[in-house]
Amino acid sequence: MDLSSTEDRSGKRAATQIPAAPAAAGSSPLAAAAGAAARTSSHEVTTPAPQVNVEGLRSWYGEQQAVRGVDLRFAANAVTAIIGPSGCGKSTLLRCINRMHEEIPGARAEGRVTLDGLDVYAKESDVVAVRRAIGMVFQKPNPFPTMSIFDNVAAGLKLTGTRGVDLRDRVEQALRGAGLWEEVKDRLGRQGIGLSGGQQQRLCIARAIAVEPRVVLMDEPCSALDPIATLRIEELIGELRANYTIVIVTHNMQQAARVADTTAFMLAGELIEHTATEQLFTNPADERTEQYVTGKFG
């Protein structure tokens, strides 16, 4: 992987297994959901993805510090959820990973973020290459309103100037990867904004994966969706981790329990705890984590 250019990546396919989280006792809805996640967390990896390391990360909005010295490892080909109360810094942390935080006037970040050892904040790192390698899906579906379904998916490919790419084939692959192809294959020329909310979010996921990123970041991807659309996105997250390293920020603790292999809890800009999802929800190591997941604050 080269963060100093926008060349196409290629990788050998491999079959490996991610071990399930250890079993833990618990009878709450969170515990049940976490247990289900643990039972389904073993999955075949079809495309090796990178490990992402965050080391000593600090970030500010002007003089206000939002993230305070976070060290966090996101395992390859796994789903990591970040939970915590509003304003705790979890979305800011997410945006720092692919250098979107610095696009906000007055915002800055310090520390290291590495993909398999390559520092995305190194002087020689190309920001476009970084954001291509680390895709982003936002809280509210944001298809380009004047573009067709096809052009929405192809937009990133055209922007990065990828050479020798069959756009039609890549768009179809991305839509299939996002579980949307069968629903839209006969209306690719229609505006993406005409899709339902859940379909729009999957369209945005297709747009993100069309450029073949290595990591997919999701910031509250289901907060604006109905329960049926939310379930489809959660199923999709489970499928995507075979090819990508996935980080999801969510306020919905049940969702974290359902989809994540590991979960990190943040509070006031600090990382309090990061462990296997079932363990965090049934036997957390920190009292503050226990108070949050049991609803005593937040």
Cα shape: globular
CATH structural class: Alpha Beta
The CATH architecture term is 3-Layer(aba) Sandwich
Order of helices and strands: HEEEHEEHEHHHHEHEHEEHH
Count of strand segments: 10
Strand content: 15-25%
Tell me the radius of gyration. 19 Å
Biggest β-sheet description: 6 strands, mixed
- Helix share bin: 25-40%
Low-confidence stretches: 6-27
For this structure, what is the CATH homologous superfamily?
P-loop containing nucleotide triphosphate hydrolases
Estimated structural class? alpha/beta
**Strand line-up in the sheet with most strands:** 6-7-8-3-9-10
CATH topology: Rossmann fold
Write the layout of secondary structure elements.
Elements (H helix, E strand, L loop, with lengths): L28 H11 L12 E10 L2 E11 L4 E5 L6 H8 L9 E9 L2 E2 L7 H7 E4 L11 H12 L6 H11 L3 H4 L12 H14 L4 E5 L7 H14 L4 E5 L3 H7 L2 E6 L2 E7 H6 L4 H7 L5
Parallel strand pairs: 3-8, 3-9, 6-7, 7-8
Antiparallel strand pairs: 1-2, 1-4, 4-5, 9-10
Helix pairs in contact: 1-9, 4-5, 4-7, 5-7, 7-8
Can you tell me about this structure?
The chain is of the alpha/beta class and 298 residues long. Helices cover 34% and strands 21% of the residues. It contains eleven helices and ten strands. The chain has helices at 29-39, 90-97, 127-133, 149-160, 167-177, 181-184, 197-210, 227-240, 253-259, 277-282, 287-293; strands at 52-61, 64-74, 79-83, 107-115, 118-119, 134-137, 215-219, 245-249, 262-267, 270-276. It has a six-stranded mixed beta sheet, sandwiched between helices. A four-stranded antiparallel beta sheet has the order 2-1-4-5, with helices on one face. Mean pLDDT is 87; it is low at 6-27.
